[in-house]
Design goal:
Bound molecules: FE2/S2 (inorganic) cluster, fe (ii) ion
Order of helices and strands: HHEEEEEEEEEEEHHEEEEEEHHH
Radius of gyration: 22 Å
CATH superfamily of the largest domain: Naphthalene 1,2-dioxygenase Alpha Subunit, Chain A, domain 1
Low-confidence stretches: none
Structural class: alpha+beta
Largest sheet: 7 strands, antiparallel
Distance between the termini: 16 Å
């Protein structure tokens, strides 16, 4: 007897309705937001194949700096090796599978706490006590499995797929919008993580890049950045790994806080046009990134189940903003503003997920202000297609 599966030909065929033009398309089938089997499928089809953002390279500036992060149940170490390069590797000890480290720190080697197998910063097994009687034991065979690493504008991306094509060329539609931010030399003072948020990772991505709700769910607080001023400036292309829009402001130097104005130093190279809009971008399946005149912001999205995610949130500023003696006070003001949006968004995404479980969950229709969702659907469906089981 074969187990019932959600990965049917009918479900595959039904996805086609979500990748036509925005005027004709229907929203994605609810099952792909709730099914544990579908997340397992996405783990192989997306998370094991695509570039996954793990944070800012500035988090590990010195040789020996490291931190760990868990993505789709895979504990990983991100470390700066002796040559100064960022490395990514599995944290799973190749002896009996304990995690060789957890958290963050600076070390010259990684010594597994369980039996003291000791690994170099680039994952080679350097030493393993009392193994001299073990037949044909060759340390070279027991290094920590390596992941590909690519840095893009100060963000570290890793890839489980050794054959993955480079990331940067697939982000070229968007990078011109970031040139004047000099992101490689911008500063992220730290991140915080919201654990176990009760919605599917795609609900998070869709909400982040949803201009349609801007001055509706966020009425009053986002009136300076209305839904009608969303634009999708560069035509979609199927080889792109970034989905983005610009979100115009009704005045220069807008800010997502009670004053509707910037609080921190504006990035000094921005043009007047750039100071009169935000951009919102998705680099699926892990990075949501946005810009405003005085700050950039990012969400690192990590599914912990079909209906739960951890979200690590960070802000990026021009270095001069942190030299301001009032930086902490300004940060508190800025945070208080963002919190209003966050609470409204969390209420919406929690209830969307609840709705997607309903027998009455829709295949809805889109507004022209939701063009981003069609692009996201195309990105997803192309990858689902490539991995869909036969028959
Ligand atoms: S599990 Fe790591 S040394 Fe044994
Ligand atoms: Fe929102």
């Amino acid at each position: 007897m074969t187990m019932p599966t959600v990965l049917t030909t009918e479900l595959r065929t039904s996805l086609d309705a979500s990748i036509t033009d925005v005027g004709s398309a229907a929203t994605l089938p609810p099952a792909i937001y709730t099914s544990p089997e579908f997340l397992d499928f996405e783990t192989e089809a997306l998370f094991m194949k695509e570039w996954l953002c793990v944070g800012r390279a500035e988090r590990i500036p010195e040789v020996g700096d490291w931190f760990t992060v868990t993505i789709v149940d895979e504990p990983l170490i991100i470390a700066r090796d002796k040559a100064g390069a960022v490395r990514a590797m599995s944290a799973v000890c190749q002896h009996r599978a304990m995690q060789v480290c957890d958290g963050q720190g600076n070390n010259t080697t990684f010594k597994c706490p369980y039996h003291h197998w000791n690994y170099s910063l680039d994952g080679r097994l350097l030493g393993a006590p009392a193994m001299e009687k073990t037949v044909d034991f060759n340390k070279a065979d027991f290094g920590l499995p390596q992941l590909r690493v690519e840095e893009w504008l100060g963000f570290v991306f890793v890839n489980f797929d050794a054959d993955a094509a480079p990331l940067a060329p697939t982000l070229e539609r968007y990078t011109p919008f970031l040139d004047n931010y000099d992101l490689e030399s911008a500063v992220c003072p730290g991140t915080f993580t919201l654990e176990g948020m009760p919605w599917n990772w795609k609900v998070m991505f869709e909400n982040f890049n949803d201009g349609y709700h801007a001055n509706r769910l966020h009425q009053f607080v986002q009136d300076f950045c209305p839904s009608s001023m969303s634009e999708f400036p560069v035509p979609w292309s199927d080889d792109s790994n970034v989905i983005f829009r610009t979100a115009g402001y009704t005045h220069i130097d807008g800010g997502f806080n009670a004053t509707h104005r910037v609080i921190m130093d504006v990035f000094p190279k921005l043009t007047e046009e750039e100071r009169t809009r935000s951009t919102f971008a998705l680099v699926p399946p892990t990075l949501c990134f946005g810009t405003a005149p005085d700050q950039c912001f990012f969400f690192l999205v990590r599914p912990t189940g079909p209906e739960t995610i951890d979200v690590e949130i960070g802000y990026i500023f021009h270095p001069s903003a942190l030299e301001d003696p009032l930086f902490e006070q300004k940060m508190a003001l800025s945070d208080a503003g963002v919190q209003v949006f966050v609470e409204q968004d969390q209420d919406a995404t929690t209830k969307v997920q609840q709705g997607l479980r309903s027998r009455f969950a829709p295949r809805g229709r889109y507004s022209w202000q939701e063009e981003s969702h069609i692009q996201f659907n195309r990105w997803l469906v192309a990858r689902y297609d490539a991995a869909w089981p036969e028959g």
